[in-house]
User: What shape does this take?
Amino acid sequence: MGSAHVLAAATKSSGFNPSTLILILVVVVAFYMLLIRPQQRRKQQAQQQQNTVAPGARVRTTAGMYATVVAVDGDDVILEVAPGVEARFMRRAVMDVISPGETEEEEAPVDETDTDSETDWESSDTTEDDVDDTVADDAPESDAAADAEETAYEQATGSKKD
Assistant: This one.
């Protein structure tokens, strides 16, 4: 009698549960929709851009360099990375074809007004005593800086500076 109860319990727990199969299928479909399909689209778009590269186009390489296409030679592309400087890249190295409005941002010119600071220094009212005090105040700081430099050297090399 005891073995009949064990046998009955074993058959009930090992039954097929269709919800487990449905859960596995949902997970597989979700991975495909969220990971595999978008990656395939990006790869296809990159392939189309690489195949449509023509001389004169402005491109960005996978290394982050901006260049202009000079010639296309099979799987290679000759890019002008600077005026008069040409380099040969594999077509796969072209990451983006850049439209004219999307070019790299150029830095604004720096306004140099250092001449005003020199005239302010020359016209300031300092006496020789003030200059001597300033030099005397800087001396301990330079010793501290030298000590700090020696300590850093000793820590880095493990030996004293000669």
